[in-house]
Write a structure and sequence with these properties.
- It is a single chain.
- The chain has one domain.
- The chain is built from 4 helices and no strands.
- Keywords: Cell membrane, Membrane, Transmembrane, Transmembrane helix.
- This is Stress-responsive transcriptional regulator.
- Pfam families: PspC (PF04024).
Length: 78
């Protein structure tokens, strides 16, 4: 099984790529994730949703570029 990790998206970003990264992780449409997150935030008085987004933006790492993968590849030495 492939090692799946949650990263901020580089392609599907509106602000910091958090929702796009979550959508890529679960293999769903990023717009659907954004709408669900907006509804969650709206019905919880918005303030907790903003705090959660800021925390996620700080905690979720950026997706490494392909060159980062190549430089850490254990077979690249051979």
């Amino acid at each position: 099984m492939a090692d799946r990790r949650l990263y901020k998206s580089k392609n599907n970003r509106m602000i910091s790529g958090v929702m796009g990264g979550i959508a890529e992780y679960f293999n769903v449409d990023p717009t659907l994730v954004r709408v669900i997150y907006f509804l969650f935030s709206f019905f919880s008085a918005a303030f907790p949703g903003i705090i959660v987004y800021i925390i996620l933006a700080l905690v979720i790492p950026e997706k490494p570029s392909r060159s980062d993968y190549d430089s850490h590849d254990e077979w690249s030495e051979f």
